[in-house]
Amino acid sequence: MKMRVAVLLAVVAMFCAADAQTCDLDGLMSSLTESVASAVLQKVTLSCIDVTARGSLVDCPAGYKLTGCSCGNACGSWDIRNDQTCHCQCANQDWTAARCCKIALK
């Protein structure tokens, strides 16, 4: 894929060098970027789950990344440890929840 893009850019550069007045390189790059992004997005999916545990810590399963936390007892103070663990900072937490997501191929 990278080689195809490089070859395409080289061909476009040659045409633009030959006729610089009609070559819209910015427009072409924008279209090319949108096309590549669209192709990638058609092949992937975002899968998210909620994980809950008693106490003040909860981990995301392997392969998932932590995207947010929620705490019991009206505690709004939390942090993320090691990119994988939600930690509710209030004392005597009854539960902690994590939103965990992964990008997968369709």
UniProtKB/TrEMBL annotation:
Keyword Nucleus: yes or no?
no
The family assignment reads: Belongs to the resistin/FIZZ family.
Give the residue range of the signal peptide.
Answer: 1-20
What organism is the protein native to?
A: Acipenser oxyrinchus oxyrinchus
Which gene name belongs to this protein? Answer: RETN
Q: Tell me any Pfam family this protein matches.
A: Resistin
Keyword tRNA processing assigned to the entry: answer is no
The record's subcellular locations are: Secreted
Q: Which PANTHER family match?
A: RESISTIN
Report the protein name in the record: Resistin-like
As one GO molecular function, the record gives: hormone activity
Keywords for this entry? Disulfide bond, Hormone, Secreted, Signal
State the GO CC annotations: extracellular space
Q: Which InterPro entries would you find in this protein's record?
A: RELM (IPR009714), Resistin-like_sf (IPR036262)
